[in-house]
């Protein structure tokens, strides 16, 4: 049996370091050949051929376990690892170098267990001490990394290892000598892929039955500095206002290092490698080496956007691990810093006075006012806003900003009249969309005068009023006077004459005297004409002055036509059908209409003309002002009958119209009306009557 170190009442000796983790405070300097601490290793069999290896080549461990520096060292990193191996055991110890205010806890984080790291304080037959393996080891493989010990001496007993990395994916990384308990690794490990392996060890008999365990075996991968810092969040763009105080924070640069964050392998320091451009100072910015904050270091005067070669700076930022030491790995990224504009320059007119010429009666842009502004064209600190502050009482002018050129576009929005004023003087000011900063004000150059000259043009005569309206009765005699128009020439200084002519007369009813403007009729005015809309007839006339070239004005005449009773009423429908055996002898409802207006229309009077024959066959009954009903007094034989009906309107004098209602008497069987023989029957009867009449005439020569 193996004798175990007594950590509990029934344990006597445990092979390996008797203390696994040591904490030492970082001195000002490790002195050459001066002991740092003592390490106690015991393989429980005399420590034959004991050898120590230190992860830092500037240190060594003496035979008695003393850790000493081989030279004076001011910086040794944050951790040292000591590997001890004898004929019968090997183990790893960790020495953590901490500051005065740091709490010792690094190894607890690695193993994620509470309490002292060492031998678990419980009785057990299997001793499986944690194993530490550096990542990225070089061949040959497999490589022995530790050993599991059992206090049981059962004959034929074997060790069995299981868990992730053995018989679970990723499989085959670790294996154990089933007889000796030696644990070996079969290939290089990557801490960034898997940092810890939790395996189980058990002892089985010759048949494979578990006789002890399982016991947990923790394997931790020791980090190496094999990952460069990386900037993952780009692009990196920062903004700072021009004139900002020295020390203004612009942005923060943050890099990521996949190595162990508890070691110097991931301890990053930042530095500016290059600044472009280098003017006005090659050192415009500073980066906090630990936080990565970029701040301004030049005076506000130098941070002037308008005097810079370009408002954009590019900084090449380096992140270096190992706390920035020369041996550290590096990664770089570009930070773009834009100097933002503030409104510290007012817009100024390029000249104090502008000239413009415009013809009277014309609207639109007459002049573009130009200004200069040194601020950023993409901001409200550059965009101009123009205002007319004097000389525009009639609101004849407006000014707007051209968004592309920033010029002020002065426009005439109400036509100017040369005869009223031939000259105009405007006072215009310009400001920015954004307010100026407090210590800057608008000066005299932010106002300008515009002198506008109005040119005289030959304007067309103007009708008064326009449109012109008159009311006339329709059907007035041809040659009647409708109206005398009046047009005047706005060009009062030119003393021109005016002639008149017809421009548009849709019905051809009118004429105009070219000299005095009297309008007369050349045809009867008809209110019912399709050229009359809503009782109004519209015509256009021209007034032409004697200028060179002559100018023309257009006048509109609306004639409201009063109605007279000049249309007879009409009757509808003019055809009706009835069955020869009909029980309902109400044949048809008749309606009357009249193109005239009330009171020359309804109520209408309906009458039957005189009926021939010895007895009456039908009668008419009035239903309302516009409708009447024709009723048969008896059933008639199948034939066509013409019933003369007269309808009279209510005009003064009234007008009467007589219309024949054609009545077809048809045979009706099984809900079907047959009127096909009525015409033939009616014709046959007519021929018989004509023949009889002819014979009668021959008898009386």
CATH topology of the largest domain: Immunoglobulin-like
Number of strands: 52
Supply Rg: 59 Å
Mean pLDDT: 86
Shape by Cα distribution: elongated
Tell me the distance between the termini: 175 Å
**Uncertain runs:** 1-11, 103-124, 679-701
CATH architecture classification of the largest domain = Sandwich
Indicate the proportion of strand residues: 35-45%
Q: Which percent bin holds the helix content?
A: under 10%
For this structure, what is the CATH homologous superfamily of the largest domain? Cadherins
Number of domains: 6
Count, helices? 2
Task: Kindly describe this structure.
The protein is mostly beta strands. It has six domains: 16-98, Cadherins (Immunoglobulin-like, Sandwich); 126-222, Cadherins (Immunoglobulin-like, Sandwich), CATH 2.60.40; 230-340, Cadherins (Immunoglobulin-like); 348-455, Cadherins (Immunoglobulin-like); 462-562, Sandwich (Immunoglobulin-like), CATH 2.60.40; 570-669, Cadherins (Immunoglobulin-like), CATH 2.60.40. It is built from two helices and 52 strands. The strands form 16 sheets. Strands 45, 47, 50, 51 and 52 form a five-stranded mixed beta sheet that branches. The protein has a four-stranded mixed beta sheet with strand order 2-9-8-5, with no helix packed on it. A four-stranded mixed beta sheet has the order 11-18-17-14, with no helix packed on it. The longest helix is centred in the C-terminal third of the chain and has 22 residues, at 678-699. The termini are far apart. Mean pLDDT is 86; it is low at 1-11, 103-124 and 679-701.
């Amino acid at each position: 049996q193996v004798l175990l170190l007594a950590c509990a009442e029934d344990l006597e000796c445990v092979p390996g370091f008797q203390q696994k983790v040591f904490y030492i405070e970082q001195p000002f300097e490790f002195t050459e050949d001066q002991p740092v601490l003592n390490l106690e290793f015991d393989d429980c069999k005399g420590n034959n051929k004991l050898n120590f290896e230190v992860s830092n080549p500037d240190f060594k461990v003496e035979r008695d376990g003393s850790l000493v520096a081989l030279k004076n060292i001011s910086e040794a990193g944050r951790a040292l690892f000591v590997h001890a191996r004898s004929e019968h055991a090997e183990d790893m110890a960790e020495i953590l170098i901490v500051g005065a205010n740091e709490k010792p806890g690094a190894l607890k984080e690695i193993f994620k267990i509470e309490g002292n790291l060492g031998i678990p304080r419980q009785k057990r037959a299997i001793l499986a001490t944690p194993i530490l393996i550096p990542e990225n080891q070089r061949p040959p493989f497999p490589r022995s990394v530790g050993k599991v010990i059992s206090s049981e001496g059962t004959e034929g007993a074997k060790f069995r290892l299981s868990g992730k990395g053995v018989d679970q994916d990723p499989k085959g990384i670790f294996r154990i000598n089933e007889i000796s308990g030696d644990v070996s690794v079969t290939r290089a490990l990557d801490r960034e892929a898997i940092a810890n392996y939790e395996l189980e060890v058990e002892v089985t008999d010759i048949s494979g039955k578990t006789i002890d365990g399982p016991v947990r075996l923790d394997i931790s991968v020791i980090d190496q500095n094999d990952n460069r810092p990386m900037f993952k969040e780009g692009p990196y763009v920062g903004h700072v206002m021009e004139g900002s105080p020295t020390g203004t924070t612009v942005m923060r640069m943050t890099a990521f290092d996949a190595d162990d964050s508890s070691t110097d392998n991931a301890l990053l320091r930042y530095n500016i490698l290059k600044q472009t451009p280098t003017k006005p100072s090659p050192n415009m910015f500073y980066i906090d080496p630990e936080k990565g904050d970029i701040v301004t270091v030049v005076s506000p005067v130098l941070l002037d956007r308008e005097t810079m070669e370009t408002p954009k700076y590019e900084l090449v930022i380096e992140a270096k691990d190992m706390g920035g030491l020369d041996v550290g790995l590096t990664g770089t990224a570009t930070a773009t810093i834009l100097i933002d504009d503030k409104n510290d320059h007012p817009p100024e007119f390029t000249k104090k006075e502008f000239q413009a010429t415009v013809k009277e009666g014309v609207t639109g842009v007459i002049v573009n006012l130009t200004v200069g502004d040194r601020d950023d064209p993409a901001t409200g600190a550059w965009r101009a806003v123009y205002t007319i502050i004097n000389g525009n009482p009639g609101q004849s002018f407006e000014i707007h900003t051209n968004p592309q050129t920033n010029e002020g576009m002065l426009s005439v929005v109400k036509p100017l009249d040369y005869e009223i004023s031939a000259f105009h003087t405007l006072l215009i000011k310009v400001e920015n969309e954004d307010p100026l900063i407090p210590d800057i004000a608008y000066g005299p150059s932010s106002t300008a005068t515009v002198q506008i000259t109005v040119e005289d043009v030959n304007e067309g005569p103007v009708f008064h009023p326009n449109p012109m309206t008159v009311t006339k009765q329709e059907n007035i005699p041809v040659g009647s006077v409708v109206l005398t128009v009046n047009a005047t020439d706005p060009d009062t200084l030119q003393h021109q004459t005016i002639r008149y002519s017809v421009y548009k007369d849709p019905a051809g009813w009118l004429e105009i005297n070219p000299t005095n403007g009297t309008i007369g009729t050349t045809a009867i005015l008809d209110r019912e004409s399709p050229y009359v809309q809503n009782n109004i007839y519209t015509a256009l006339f021209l007034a032409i002055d004697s200028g060179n070239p002559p100018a023309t004005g257009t006048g509109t005449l609306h004639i409201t036509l009063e109605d007279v009773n000049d249309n007879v009423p009409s009757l509808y429908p003019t055809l009706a059908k009835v069955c020869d055996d009909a029980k309902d002898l109400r044949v048809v409802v008749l309606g009357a209409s009249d193109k005239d207006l009330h009171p020359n229309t309804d109520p209408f009077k309906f009458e039957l003309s005189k009926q021939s024959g010895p007895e009456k066959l039908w009668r008419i009954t009035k239903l309302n002002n516009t409708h009447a009903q024709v009723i048969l007094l008896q059933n008639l034989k199948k034939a066509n009958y013409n019933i003369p009906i007269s309808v009279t309107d209510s005009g003064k004098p009234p007008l009467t119209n007589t219309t024949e209602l054609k009545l077809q008497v048809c045979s009706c069987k099984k809900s079907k009306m047959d009127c096909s023989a009525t015409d033939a029957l009616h014709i046959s009867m007519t021929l018989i009557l004509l023949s009889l009449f002819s014979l009668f005439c021959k008898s009386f020569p």
